[in-house]
Amino acid sequence: MVRLLSDTDIKRLVTMNDIVPAVENVFAEYAEGRVEMPSKIYLDIKGYGDFRAMPSYVPSIGTAGVKWVNVHPDNPSKGLPTVMATILLNDPETGRLICVMNGSTLTDERTGAAGGVAAKYLARKDSSVVGLIGSGHQAYTQMLAYNVVFGRQIKLVKVYSRHPEHAEALAGRIRAEMGYDAQAVMTAQEAADSDIIATITPARRPVLIADWVKPGTHINAIGADAPGKQELESMLTVKARVFVDSVEQASHSGEINVPWSQGLLNKDKLAGTIGEVIVGMMPGRTSDREITVFDSTGLSIQDMAVAHLVYERALKEHIGTDVNI
């Protein structure tokens, strides 16, 4: 039998308090070479969007699987999310399919968790102001993760969106659900005057300019997830200490892909992976004045770590539907 789990089921089974440590642990395992993860495969659908296939195997939790996820930028105009995903989990020993689950909310939340883990290790310890450039689902999950990592230390959240009503809506939600002082701002430059900046947009030209960023800032660059996408001015990534989730993925489809293709960045100029920082193989922040950047491309192992946790809890709590396919 195969367990089917809906988005509603997943929201009942895990919270960001569970997801942040799961993602942190699997980043560490990746740095230590204890997982198997081929690069994600892109299927371009001209004029509409693309699909990505993301397989991996995490031996420590006995989970192998694949996420099949789309990115269709025009979907909101059709009443659909930009990103939708399905996750398949298999028994590594036999290959038997054991679970099919909705991966949309899980994708948003594991992405938020990655930003939270990066901020834990790379942001200044006294960080108290967060700037969000972008106001979609993943901007919200960034804040869920910062709430887990920093708690009441956060004093102000500034939200910028090209659509002011969206910024107002997200700021209101953050105030209502997390209790932070959250304000919509009219420009990205205002949001950039923060201790932690998250860029969560589909931009193909920079939305964050080097001159706007003060010394000591940490930046989570989340939105660039395909060749040609770029949220940070190249000058900013060149002068900052840049950490990635995966060098291979980031160099061709992450925030650094544009300056990399221009010859401005290479592997030797990177500060390391976030997993290497977690396990102590590479130093994280080394001063209160340096600018740090985390380039998050999204790894299949993040999905598998969280999906495994969801599946185990679903079995224990008898949640979901078993079907014979």
Automatic annotation (TrEMBL):
GO cellular component, alphabetical, reads: cytoplasm
Q: Which InterPro entries match?
A: Ala_DH_archaeglobus, AlaDH_arch-typ, NAD(P)-bd_dom_sf, ODC_Mu_crystall, ODC_N
Q: Which reaction does it catalyse?
A: L-alanine + NAD(+) + H2O = pyruvate + NH4(+) + NADH + H(+)
Q: Where along the chain is NAD(+) bound?
A: 110, 137-138, 223-225, 229, 296
Active site feature: 67
What top-level class of enzyme does the UniProt entry assign? Answer: oxidoreductase
**Pfam families tied to this protein:** OCD_Mu_crystall (PF02423)
An example molecular function term from Gene Ontology annotations: NAD binding
This entry's Enzyme Commission designation comes to: 1.4.1.1
A GO biological-process term: alanine metabolic process
UniProt keywords (A-Z) are: NAD, Nucleotide-binding, Oxidoreductase
Q: Which PANTHER family would you find in this protein's record?
A: KETIMINE REDUCTASE MU-CRYSTALLIN
Q: Which purpose does this protein serve, as stated in its record? A: Catalyzes the NAD(+)-dependent oxidative deamination of L-alanine to pyruvate, and the reverse reaction, the reductive amination of pyruvate.
Family the entry assigns: Belongs to the ornithine cyclodeaminase/mu-crystallin family. Archaeal alanine dehydrogenase subfamily.
**Protein name, please?**
Alanine dehydrogenase
